[in-house]
Specification:
about 240 residues, elongated, alpha/beta, 5-stranded mixed β-sheet
Amino acid sequence: MSDRVIDLEETATHTGPKGVINDWRRFKLESMDQENMSAAKKELLRQMSSPSGPKDDARANLNRKMSVQEYELLKEEDEGCLKKYRKRCMQEMHDKLSFGPKFEGVHDLDSGEAFLEVIEKEHYSTVVVVHIYKIGVKGCEELNNCFDCLATEYPTVKFCRIDAVASGASERFSDEVLPTLLVYKAGELLGNFLACTQHLNEEFFATDVEAFLNSYGLLPEKELAALEDEEENDVE
């Protein structure tokens, strides 16, 4: 069996089947716990990676055939490593396809001017969700708490809140129409939900607000988050 070899001849590119194998091999080597590895495995890993060799030698080493011993080393704990590799690939894809800025937390607007600025000057691809509230009005505090949760789940969405009085339009946004949700993109109003809690249960949570906005197609997909949930379930 020692004479057998696993043919992993490949190029240094990340495209095509050979490129994917090459990328996976590198990731596997980089992610291995070398501190707790036996001396024999460390030496084998050093021979496989050869980081200090000349460029041509390194390329030749990358394209050479893999021995059975090397294959057995790479095969150990492949399932967990493969999940990490999938996650990294999905993250890279997600980053490439995610246009526009990312945000942290909910943005508190303190004036009508700040309200207009966030609508008119935000990146054209960014969805802006604004909660107009008033302290003491039923549902406003709960919705503010939901925004705190949703802002962490949707970093490419700009969640904002503004007190109706501070907005300078308290006559328009009376207590009867609060809390109000306004959704914009590229300066265009996509959603206008007055007294929005009437569409929710008496007791509601961030997932309920999320489902409500998704029912109108106002939030982006969470493909990466879905993959992470799937991996967590697999671990359990």
